[in-house]
Design goal:
The complex is a heterodimer of chains A (165) and B (371). Chain A contains seven helices and no strands. By secondary structure, chain A is mainly alpha-helical. In chain A, helix 1 (2-22) packs antiparallel against helix 2 and helix 2 (26-46) runs antiparallel to helix 3 (50-74). Chain B is an all-alpha fold and 371 residues long. Chain B has 13 helices and no strands. Chain B starts with a helix and ends with a helix. Classes of the chains: A mainly alpha (165), B mainly alpha (371). The A-B interface holds A 1-2, 27, 31, 34, 50-51, 54-55, 57-58, 61-62, 64-66, 68-69, 72-73, 119, 121, 123-124 and B 1-4, 75, 78, 108-110, 113-114, 116-118, 120-121, 123-124, 127-128, 131, 139, 143, 146, 150, 153, 170.
């Protein structure tokens, strides 16, 4: 049962990922991205990480909307065709495969140390305790980085149009 | 592990929920037309069936029999998938909403977070409906819906977080259990008000129906839809309204637990929850009848300058109360104070022109008398 669900999710995730990089329509690409990220949320749910699964839906569901909006508002019909001649795809592919290889290696080197038999979900209390006690500093730094990015975006957006107030 | 039996159970539950929500939607349509009619000094539908009860059924049948047209340049697949993308998130939330103790399809430990996560997804459907219609009004409506829903998502999340902090759980049934003696509307009036207002904006009911405003974008993302596909949007709106009303009833008005306590039979509990939910729905209709539609800039400034700061204040109050162990009544006191400040400011702002004119007249009268 779990295995069948896993294969369906894998199909959705990989199909979505392939669709993102092959389709030429930017809105379709965003939708494929939604499918791929939804598949990942399914994996999390399958692994009893309910909170992660829902966080995935919440964060990336909203993010895809923003991607679609930017795609529609920042491009015009003519520019869409210009984007077709993407000459730098070998570089992008190399970087992606390199990243994938590093992450896959990180997980397979000490694969034996993961206990595959553990089949309980982590309670929210435990997750919160770990996040705010053991990993409090990285967590706060991550939020700080996001804040800096936000303020930076505002500064960049404002500096051009100061005259209009 | 999820067994095949569980899947079957959830499937049956969702089927029952779907049919139940159809009936609820028909009742809401009838109730809205009747109630609005009464508020506006009319009688509402009277012709079809006793008290016009079958009017909504007749309308639904008419919608299903209408020809289903789509614009020539529309992106066909997305155009027909978009109504489902709007409806399914609003519907799937019902999976975890309990009607009484142990009466949810699946009482999730992360129930409130489940609602937050899936309610975001309906924005995708609205934007795609607007984009795929290949119509300027529809695209504008789609953009407006994205701006509005993304903005009003924040106060909803923050007020729900307040409830979670005070109750100490995300399980909706346990939140209701925690309200045995005092409903949270008394403890967290600030969060309750902000949640209801932001919730109405989230489903786009009338004071906040900026994204399908007929007089501006002639129906927004739905402008090109007709027949059954339009009916799905219509359905989604009523189902989402009912979700917001039900969550208000459960999280703030004490659900089945308040004011009768634990020894209520389940059937009476369901009746109590439904009664509270319909009361909130009537309040939403009442707002619709009372206030004109906001302008888009007013809508945005209400969201960003009023509701979002107020919702953050609610979270900070709840967190401080929990952290320092202040007495429970301090929650109510602080909430009322925070709620009173913008109310007083608003009243002063609205009265300023009248007050200035009164002072001007008074000065002139004094000057006349002196001469």
């Amino acid at each position: 049962m779990a295995l069948a669900v896993f294969y369906v999710l894998a199909l959705v995730t990989l199909g979505g990922a392939i669709g993102v990089v092959t389709t030429r329509n930017i809105v379709h690409a965003a939708l494929f991205l939604l499918a791929a990220l939804g598949g990942v949320a399914g994996f999390f749910a399958l692994l009893y990480a309910e909170f992660l699964a829902l966080a995935q839906v919440l964060i990336y569901g909203g993010a895809v909307v923003i991607v679609i909006l930017f795609a529609l508002m920042l491009t015009r019909r003519g520019e869409l065709e210009l984007m077709d001649e993407h000459k730098r795809w070998p570089l992008a592919a190399a970087v992606s495969f390199g990243l994938f290889a590093v992450m896959a290696a990180a997980f397979t080197i000490d694969a034996a140390s993961y206990n595959a038999e553990v089949r309980t979900s982590v309670s929210l209390d435990a997750l919160g305790a770990v996040l705010f006690e053991r990993w409090a500093a990285p967590f706060e730094i991550a939020s700080l980085v996001l804040l800096v990015a936000l303020i930076g975006a505002i500064v960049i957006a404002r500096s051009g149009g100061r005259d209009e107030g | 592990m999820i067994e095949a039996r569980d899947v079957l159970y959830i499937g049956a539950g969702l089927f029952a929920l779907f049919n139940g929500l159809m009936v609820v939607t028909l009742s809401l349509v009838w109730l809205e037309r009747k109630f609005l009619g009464r508020l506006q000094g009319r009688v509402g539908p009277t012709r079809v069936g006793p008290f016009g009860l079958l009017q909504a059924v007749a309308d639904a049948l008419k919608l299903l029999m209408k020809e289903d047209v789509s614009p020539g340049p529309a992106a066909r697949v997305i155009f027909y998938a978009a109504p489902l993308l709007v409806f399914v998130p609003g519907f799937i939330v019902w999976l975890t909403i309990p009607f009484a103790q142990d009466m949810a399809v699946r009482n999730l430990e992360l129930g409130i977070f489940f609602f937050i996560a899936f309610s975001v997804l309906s924005i995708v459907g609205l934007v795609l409906a607007g984009w795929s219609s290949a119509s300027k009004y529809a695209v504008l409506g789609g953009f407006r819906s994205a701006a509005q829903l993304v903005s009003y998502e924040i106060p909803i999340i923050m007020t729900l977080l307040t409830v979670v902090i005070v109750a100490g759980t995300m399980n909706i049934a346990e939140v209701v259990e925690a309200q045995a003696s005092v409903p949270y509307v008394a403890l967290l009036p600030l969060a309750a008000v902000v949640f209801l207002l932001a919730g109405i904006a989230e489903v786009g009911r009338t004071p906040f129906d900026i994204y399908f405003a007929e007089s501006e974008v002639v129906g927004g993302p739905f402008v090109e839809y007709s027949g059954a596909h339009w009916a799905v949007f219509f359905l989604a709106e009523y189902v989402s309204t009912f979700v917001i009303a039900a969550l208000t009833a459960l999280l703030f008005l004490g659900g089945w637990r308040w004011p009768f306590g634990a020894d209520l039979p389940p059937a009476a509990g369901v009746a109590l929850v439904l009664a509270k939910t319909y009361a909130v729905v009537l309040a939403i209709f009442w707002l619709r009848a009372t206030y004109p539609r906001l302008r888009i800039d007013q809508l945005m400034s209400l969201g960003w300058k009023a509701l979002i700061p107020l919702s953050f204040a609610a979270v900070i109050i709840a967190a401080a109360q929990r952290f320092y162990g202040w007495p429970t009544w301090s929650l109510t006191a602080l909430s009322v104070i925070v709620l009173a400040v913008p109310a007083i400011l608003q009243v002063r702002l609205q009265r300023r022109p009248a007050m200035e004119r009164a002072r001007r007249y008074a000065r002139r009268a004094m000057a006349e008398r002196a001469r």
